[in-house]
Write a structure and sequence with these properties.
Aldehyde_DH_dom, alpha/beta, about 475 residues, aldehyde dehydrogenase [NAD(P)+] activity, single chain, Aldehyde Dehydrogenase, Chain A, domain 1, oxidoreductase, seven-stranded mixed β-sheet, 2 domains
């Protein structure tokens, strides 16, 4: 894929970029390594100050950067502004809490025959972030804010269709006062990722993207014995039980499925509705989907914009056509919007069976698959019959049902009476083929730190028999 800004609302390519030459890439890597040598010695309080400055800069730039994201990948301007605001919040969260996360964690010194014992989290070095286009600012910030706060240096290989947003991120941290080259954007194609990941100056990587991309990065990193964090696909279940407020559940279901024009890993994609309320919920869900305004994402009244790429819309069309050909029913939607750009109607499909691609694969567009189930056990069983395990939603006012859902659903996140989303204050990530590792809160920061054990004995002249107990037990 060319490195270019192509407006999905019109299909027009607005700006293209040349990928870095081998010499330029080598220069970037050398500069990153040199930057880490000094940056790792900065005090957490200083890093927190730079993060606060970055938050201020981004807050002032919100309107401009939101328009840039909408132009590059088609999210509505309102959602782009909200995304920028979320990044501001994350920067301030780590500025506020990062110092405490990095303080030494005391251990029981007496239990380990020491006069002092603790754990200190130290930065690893240069970390490569490989990020997708669907949340072009937020996905990168989930990595950048905690990694920079911890003292690491970042290299960003962003998706090729959001190059201007990627370059903005580098400029953001420069304007905030971070030392030169602490965060750099690499305009390179996917073919250059292995070279960067294998380079000895790069110590770890994080990727948000597809399963095949995750497998490729994990294989290279594993061969080179380098740490990775992977956030891959999702096909989140959305379970509705009879005790739920159906109108509220249907309203949230629409947002959960169509947020970001349906292009979100944590979007609810499979809807499991109890037979006692299936007819009513289906009616409400279909009506609310049909009422959405599809159009120019720059317009304030637009609720669903275009898909980010032409090939993405073709994939959605293929999934729906396959389901219909194999017996599914399209309740509402199911067609491309006949206008310039890559628009597709919000769609509800029922009668889905395992022989359809929509059953077992992730549909990255505003298409919901609805299943009628006899009870919660059946809903959880079918929900778990999937390779992904990112997030999961339950709508129920029954405490026993809630506890069974939390215990038994196979996911990294479980939300009750609300839709799955991300917060700086909570860990984010999945299980199974949705990846491994966590982002956000202190857990996300620690993914790219060395949890170093420190054991201090008494002065050498005072050491007794107890000081060697640990070594003997080993």
């Amino acid at each position: 894929m060319a490195i270019a800004t192509t407006n999905p609302t019109t299909g027009e390519t607005l700006k293209t970029f040349e990928p870095l030459s081998d010499e330029a890439l080598e220069d970037r890597l050398a500069r990153a390594a040199a930057a880490f040598a000094g940056y790792r010695l900065t005090e957490p309080a200083q890093r927190a100050g730079w993060l606060r400055s970055a938050a201020d800069v981004l807050e002032a730039d919100t309107g401009t950067v939101a328009e840039l994201m909408t132009t590059e990948m088609g999210k509505t301007l309102a959602s782009a502004k909200a995304e920028a605001g979320k990044c501001v919040k994350a920067l301030r969260y780590y500025a506020e809490h990062g110092e405490s996360f990095l303080r030494p964690k005391p251990a029981d010194a007496e239990a380990v025959s020491a006069t002092e014992a603790y754990v200190v989290h130290q930065p690893l070095g240069v970390v490569l972030a490989i990020m997708p286009w669907n949340f072009p600012l937020w996905q990168a910030m989930r990595f950048a804010a905690p990694a920079l706060m911890a003292g690491n240096v970042g290299l960003l290989k962003h998706a090729s269709n959001v190059p201007q947003t990627a370059l903005y991120l580098e400029e953001l941290f420069r304007q905030a006062g971070f030392p030169a080259d602490v965060f750099q954007t690499l305009l390179i194609g996917s073919g250059s990722v292995e070279r960067v990941l294998r380079d000895d100056r790069v110590v770890a990587a994080t990727l948000t993207g597809s399963g095949p991309a995750g497998q490729s990065v994990a294989a290279v990193a594993g061969d080179a014995l380098k740490k990775t964090v992977l956030e891959l696909g999702g096909s989140d279940p959305f379970i509705v039980m009879p005790s739920a407020d159906l109108d509220k559940a249907a309203e949230v279901a629409v947002t959960a499925r169509c947020q970001n024009n349906g292009q979100s890993c944590i979007a609810a994609k499979r809807f499991f509705v109890h037979a006692d309320v299936a007819e009513e919920f289906t009616r409400l869900f279909a009506e609310k989907l049909a009422d959405l305004t599809v159009g120019d994402p720059m317009d304030e009244g637009t609720q669903v914009g275009p898909l980010a790429t032409e090939s993405g819309r073709e994939d959605v069309e293929r999934y729906v056509a396959d389901a219909v050909q194999k017996g599914a029913t399209v309740v509402t939607g199911g067609r491309r919007v006949e206008r310039p750009g890559w628009f597709y109607e919000p769609t509800l499909v029922t009668g889905v069976t395992p022989k359809m691609g929509i059953y077992s694969e992730e549909v990255f567009g505003p298409v919901a698959a609805l299943f009628t189930v006899s009870d919660l056990d059946e809903a959880i069983r079918i929900a778990n019959d999937h390779v992904y395990g990112l997030g999961a939603n339950l709508w129920s006012d029954d405490e026993a049902e809630r506890q069974r859902f939390i215990r038994d659903v196979q996911s990294g996140m479980a939300f009750v009476n609300g839709m799955v989303t991300s917060y700086p204050d909570l860990p984010f990530g999945g299980v199974k083929q949705s990846g491994y590792g966590r982002e956000l809160t202190e857990v996300g920061m620690y993914e790219f730190t060395n949890a170093k054990t420190v054991w201090i004995g008494p002065p050498s002249g005072q050491q007794g028999e107890g000081s060697t107990a640990g070594a003997a037990a080993e």
